[in-house]
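just leaving the lab so this will be short. what follows is a protein written twice so to speak, once as letters and once as structure tokens for the fold. can you read through it and tell me how you think this chain folds. thanks a lot i owe you, the record is right below.

___
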Amino acid sequence: MITLGSEQEWRGGKTAVALGTFDGVHRGHQRLIQRAVEAAHRQGLSAVVSTFDVHPLSVLCPEKAPLLLNDNLQKSEIMARMGVDALIYNRFTREFAASPPEAYIERMVRALHPAYVVAGYNYSFGAKGAGNAALLEKMQEQMGYRLLITEPVRIGGRPVSSTWVRESLAQGDLRQTEELLGRPYDLLGQVIDGKHMGRKLGFPTANLRLPQGRALPLNGVYVAELKIEGQNEFLPAVLNQGRHPTLPQGGATIEVHVLNYHGNLYGRRVWVRYRKFLRPERAFDSVQALSAQLERDKQAAQAFFEP
């Protein structure tokens, strides 16, 4: 899949275009993207996703901007696996947001030549969010595309949304988070030099900085999986997220102990999946008590992955 900076950089032919912000690429987003991919495959078109380089609220109302569920690289990886041919990140500015919604449609059509446009039932765009599904439908004959509106995916009667995913994550409910996303919650980071306390305790860890602006579950200990970028296999692991109150030097981090792994991960980029919450973060009376608990955490993780 190719990733482009703007619609104007597209040099391909006719397309099926999915429109949206796609924070989290949850199950509702996946249904929408899959409709574009299916339409493209039926007609021999390119499947294109057109989105923004940042969350719109981070520009329009920064104090209300949500914590993000994934970064742009993660979006690219997820959509590539879904069969998307090109992912376009339009630069979102106040000027871009202030353009009339009709101009937004005309610009998109000139650049991407869509035979199909796929959008969610509640998609809004253009100045003051005045553009909506009704306007996309009204302009489809004039602009030469066919509009496909996607209804929400519902679980227990509630529409799946990025807001609901963030709520579940903040509550530490990984089971519901995974149900809403259709996959485990994950993040991508680079392994940095840490305090080396885990190694001294017999539990060497890959240390990652807490990503800024990202939604994270509650601090605590989790069953997890780690995949080294460029490799296919996820390795079973135990993850500790927080300030490590027993040995509190330094700031908050994410530390991942990969079970039965002896390689050096320093400097490598890794994907980390949160699979199951084990316990909250807590202070122990001694290093020995902490070490004994880490061994119990390791055994719990091993049991999780046993067939």
The radius of gyration is 22 Å.
